[in-house]
Amino acid sequence: MVLDGSGATVSTYRKIHLFDVDVPDGPVLMESRSTAPGAAALAVVDAEEALGFTFGLTTCYVLRFPEL
């Protein structure tokens, strides 16, 4: 999330690739059980007026998604 100086939400980003793993005889971590995925790979934040630039939000935690 990006908030402005008054605490209002300017932009949000929800990651599109959730982390699910079920290791035989090991841990089960299923992010998809409690988190809804986003629909876009990037959220663009126009902060030109306040900060003088525009920036993007994204998450890429593995090399399986080179487009990010």
Structural write-up:
It is a single chain. By secondary structure, the protein is mainly beta. It has one domain (2-57). The chain is built from 1 helix and 6 strands. It has a two-stranded antiparallel ribbon. The chain has a two-stranded antiparallel sheet with strand order 3-4.
Rg over CA atoms, rounded to whole Å, is 16 Å
Major β-sheet profile: 2 strands, antiparallel
Spatial gap, N to C terminus: 18 Å
User: Which range best describes the helical content: under 10%, 10-25%, 25-40%, 40-55%, 55-70% or over 70%?
Assistant: under 10%
Give unreliable regions as ranges: none
- Backbone structural class: mainly beta
Total E-strand runs: 6
Silhouette: elongated
| Strand ordering within the main sheet | 1-2
Question: What portion of residues belong to β-strands?
Answer: 25-35%
Number of domains: 1
Topology:
Blueprint: E1 2-3, E2 9-11, E3 20-22, E4 28-30, E5 43-47, H1 48-51, E6 53-57
Quick tags:
68 residues, mainly beta, two-stranded antiparallel ribbon, 1 helix, 31% strand
Brief write-up:
With 68 residues, the chain is mainly β.
